[in-house]
Write a structure and sequence with these properties.
This protein is an alpha+beta fold. 60% of the residues lie in helices and 7% in strands. The chain is elongated, with a radius of gyration of 33 Å.
């Protein structure tokens, strides 16, 4: 069956009569006539007919009617051109509307998925449309870069192409939220999120990716997503430079801040005396951070701070004098290091401990 024959006559209603009038008078189509053709093209699109078949049907009808039409061929071609152009415009209008509707539906689903605002049973049914089986375990990776990203951004498209080329259809959902790139993947396929992180780092020319732990059930995506967001925030507070942060490797930090008041008390009692230092607390706090981050190797810590070893050890001694705790003494080290981590998590000294 030809493409033209597949299009019902209702979508060509009045077309031949219109051509006959155009050929007889040599006039151009009126505004309302063009709008009628656009509406027919829009209806054909909504009904699921292809644009190629629709155009073919119009050309076939014009060819079959040509022997009985008055006037010259130029008038016929002009009329056909106007009609086909209007039909195609209406068809594309319907397609754009369908795309916008699909995008709105997808965005609504993603928002409900990430915030758990929908009935979990209903959410699981909707998820199947997007290739997710929420009865299984899932993990979420969140990528933050130097810019804000939406789904049409070049970086998002580049990462999506790379994932599709590598993994095809494995129940993966790639999207954006609040300017970040997100990837939801089955919990038993950690290689997907690792590859996502690698592609994001390359496409963003830097940035940082946090990967939440695999969580079961319809609410697992929300839990893993929130965990990944918390890890990104933690990385910013602790100034962690690793390109990929794993929630499973940083579980100790949420534990440390679970009782924020207790942590604030520890920071105040342990590090509060450093505020009496002549140069302020920041240089000495920076000294402790570098010392612990370098594995308590003074020479390496001094190099990181571009200090001489002598100047660095002087700072350590000054810390001992002010706090009464010796950073080089293993019996004091844990308390100092925990207080330093707490200070970074609570934003001290920039943020007063009373409002942490």
């Amino acid at each position: 069956m030809s493409g033209a024959a597949r299009i019902p006559e209702t979508y060509l209603e009045g077309y031949v009569a219109l051509l006959a009038d155009v050929c007889a008078t040599g006039r151009r189509l009126k505004r309302q006539e063009l709008e009628t053709r656009r509406e027919l093209g829009e209806r054909a699109a909504d009904a699921g007919y292809g644009l190629r078949d629709l155009v073919s049907a119009h050309l076939t009808a014009a060819r079959e009617a040509r022997p009985s039409l008055p006037g010259d061929p130029d008038s016929l071609l002009t009329g056909m051109h106007q009609v086909v152009d209007a039909v195609a415009e209406g068809y594309e209008r319907a397609q754009r509307q369908a795309v916008r509707q699909e995008e709105a539906t997808r965005r609504e689903f993603i928002d409900d998925l990430l915030h758990g605002r929908s009935d979990l049973g209903r959410l699981a049914e909707r998820a199947e449309r997007f290739g997710l089986r929420l009865s299984h375990t899932h993990a979420v990776a969140v990528a933050r870069g130097p810019a804000a990203y939406d789904e049409g951004h070049q970086v998002a498209r580049q990462v999506e192409r790379a994932l599709i080329a590598r993994f095809h259809d494995r129940g993966i959902l790639l999207t954006t939220k609040d300017g970040r790139l997100l990837c939801v993947a089955p919990g038993d396929q950690p290689e997907v999120l690792t590859y996502f992180a690698k592609q994001c780092y390359a496409a963003m020319d830097g940035g940082q990716v946090a990967i939440g732990r695999s969580q079961p059930g319809p609410g697992g995506v929300v839990q893993s997503y929130e965990e990944a967001l918390s890890v990104l925030d933690l990385g910013a507070r602790l100034e962690l430079r690793e390109p990929v942060l794993y929630a499973s490797e940083l579980l100790v930090y949420p534990v440390l801040t679970r009782d924020r008041q207790a942590m604030a008390d520890l920071v105040q009692a342990t590090l509060g005396p450093l505020t009496a230092a002549r140069g302020g607390v920041e240089p000495l706090l920076e000294t402790l951070t570098a010392y612990f981050d370098s594995g308590c190797v003074a020479a390496e810590a001094a190099r990181r701070l571009t200090l001489s070893v002598r100047a660095f050890t002087y700072r350590l001694e000054r810390i001992r004098q002010l706090t009464g705790a010796n950073p080089t003494d293993p019996s004091h080290r844990y308390m100092l290091q925990t207080a330093v981590i707490g200070a970074r998590l609570l934003g001290w000294p920039a943020a007063p401990l009373g409002t942490a």
